[in-house]
Structures are given as structure tokens and as C-alpha cells.
Amino acid sequence: MTTTKKPQTLRGKVALWASILVVFVVAILLVMLLVKPSGQDQPSIPVAVETPKEEGGCNVPAGDTSTKPAMPKDLRWEAEKGWTWPVSDTYGPTKTKDGYGVCFARSPLGAALAMTEFYSSANTQDPRKAMDLYVMDSSGKSVAMSKPSTSGNTSNEVGPMAFAGFITDSFTKDEAQVTMVFALAGSPTGYVGLPSTLRWVDGDWKLKVLDDGSTFAGVGSKPAAGQFVSWGNANG
Prior knowledge:
This protein is an alpha+beta fold.
């Protein structure tokens, strides 16, 4: 005798097993979501964080990189021992090292400000320390450092020369050739220009001296007003 199951009974059993299966799957998903694997407190996908890069601890904005940059609004003058020189809190010096101004913009303006800082520091502070800090390592530096050290103004009878401006003779991001222009009464034009070369070393400008230790060659030029970028009022 063949027994035939009622359709209602089959449907009831299928529904029961389906409900059990759904509950089992949901339970597994809850365990996967709520239970963290041991030793993993951070997300499995690393998040890349970009940090600002600094060169030599300076990170100074370059600003205007043209050969005739406009003067920054925060340009001001400092004075000591008869010397007056321009500084900018934005383009340099932006930091100090052992009392000497460092960290200048990687631009013609930054290179020129670095040279004014070198000249003023060499004449108002220890010239040997200034030479060691601001001049890049070379055979010429060794010669310069071996010369007898002098203190105070190096301009002797002429007295301190006033910073008038600068001429950017050439510029790349790694080297700047800048002529520093000083007001000088004995010059036919009223000015004298002293050429210098700076190299970008370890994130800041360093003066490159000649093999004989000199900071510039020859007697300099005699630029006239209008032929150079003026700092403005040298008397502050």
C-alpha cells in the first residue's frame, strides 16, 4: 500500500528548514561583523598620509623667482654697530642658528637676503663664525678660514657701506650669481657692486668663495641708479 504525503505537510517541512537556514546564515554574519580578529586593532587597508617635506629644516616659500622681484611687504631693516641691512620674516632669515640668521627663500630675493646677512654678520659678529656658517665647504673656504680673524667693521677707513640693492646676474634653483650693490660716496655713480656666487646646499643658500678665499673677484662694478633692484630706504 503506497502512502502519499499531503502537499501541506511537505510545504511545512520546507518552510521549517528554510527558516533554520536563514537563522544560521544571519548568526554567522553577526559573528563576522562583531568579533575582531586577535591582534588587529587597525583597519586592514593602510591609509597613506602625506607629510610636508622640509629641506634642511627651513621650508621657506620661494615667492617671486624673477630676476627683478618686487620687495615683500614685510621687508624691514635691522641695525647694529653702524650697519643697516634688510630682512624679511617671510623670505629670510626665517630662523636663527647660534644667533645668526638662516633659512632663506630659494629665489633671487632669498639669495640676495642671504648675502646681506653674511656681510652684516661678518661685520657685526664673529667674522670667523660667520664664514664657517655661510660659506660652503671648498678649498677656498679652507684658505679663508686660515686667514687671521678680524672683528668689527671690515670696511676700515671707508666705514660701513649701506646696502642699496642687488642685481641678479643669473639664477637656477641650485645656483645664484648676485651682485650686491652698496651706496658709496667715492664711486662715480654713487654705488659699487660686488659680485658673488651662492649654491643651494642642504636646504639653504651658501656663499661660494674663490680658491684664494676671496668672496668676489676684481674691484667690482659701478652700477647707476635704475640698473639694480633697490631695497628702498637704507636708513630704516
